[in-house]
Amino acid sequence: MTVADLMILFQAHYMKTNLAPNTYRGYLVNIKNHILPYHADKDPDELTYTDVDHLVAELHKKGLSN
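Given the sequence above, the corresponding C-alpha cells read:
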C-alpha cells in the first residue's frame, strides 16, 4: 500500500461520511496539491517524522501555513 492508496481509503471511508462539503473539497485540494506530490508512492509504514517535516518546510517556503 502507498500513501496514495491510503488517501483513497481515507476519502472513501472517512471524508465522504464525516466532513461537511466545503471541508471535504478543501481536504481533496490539500491532498492532491500538497501531500501526493511529495509522498504518493511511499509506504505509509516507512514515512518518517523527517519526511513530514520536510513537506511542511516546503509548504512554508510556498507561503502556506500549517
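The mean pLDDT is 94. Try to locate this feature in the C-alpha cell string yourself.
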